[in-house]
Specification:
Structural class: alpha+beta
Order of helices and strands: HHEEEEEEEEEEEEEEHHHEHHHH
Largest sheet: 8 strands, antiparallel
Helix content: 10-25%
Number of strands: 15
Number of helices: 9
Strand content: 25-35%
Amino acid sequence: MAPAKTTAGAIIAVFLFLFSAAAVAAPPFNVPTVSFSEGFSHLFGNDNLIRGADDRSVRLTLNRYSGSGFISTDLYDHGFFSASIKLPKDYTAGVVVAFYTSNADMFPRSHDELDFEFLGNVKGKDWRIQTNIYGNGSTTRGREERYLVPFDPTQAAHSYSILWTPDYIIFYIDDVPIREVVRTEAMGGDFPSKPMSVYATIWDGSSWATAYGRIKINYKYEPYVSEFTDLVLRGCRVDPIIQQAVEAADRCAESVEELMSADFALLTPRKRAAMRRFRERYMIYSFCYDQHRYANFTLPDCDYVSPEHTRFGEWGDNKVPPKEIRSRSVSRRRSRRPSSVIPTGDEMLQ
């Protein structure tokens, strides 16, 4: 039995190395990047946001006094948004790094949102990434999926990309599609449809991020630093004032057509096979199988896959329900208050 385990471990190690090495060697898509000043502005965090000398890299820091973040200077009516991100090292339980699109500032009760959320970990444990989709304020019908990360995201930057079109949404890690959501009539307003800004933040998510909040942030390990490079903003820019008089769907038609014909918008059989392999190996939670949250109700965009359901039960991510349905307002991500609970050394080892 021991040699078999060793062989299996070696195969997995080689796969992870190849995934990591191939991904870091070159940008995943041939898309132009923007400097920070061309496309973004400081959102919050005072000195916790540090721009690189070349204006093409940004460091976001979280300490006991504040998190930090930046926001695109424009809203976009659909688009392709990407960043290469290197996550904080060591003990990061309770730390959340987020790269996402949202319009919560403009539509606080009916906002749309597309998320990449990187959930901090206890040192030595696997990092987890969460994706989510909200449309028209559908926070009580969150569509979370959660995955193990098939590489060490603290050792090198990897690209995380969101493609948002009128018909479908695709999430990418490097050049591997990990999730596709196709718009259906049954989804109705749950499919994001209003112009959104692009955000990057780091903040204290102790109340839910690690083990549903049972393991809190420990500021003994501050500062927590995340690095962002290769920023991509490709889409139809929208003025919210003009938007009231001119339909963005008409004005942005040419831009959307160009977007949907790009390489990253076309899921070839090879890409679909890569997405299937990723989901089979690394997806550990799906809203489609969360019986605590949805009981016997199945959202219209769910496809029941029996092996997936079994695997989620084994991982246990859907065995312990959250204490509350989390609101995803931007104000939460701007929280400056440090956690009031700091785990002891014994708790961190559990």
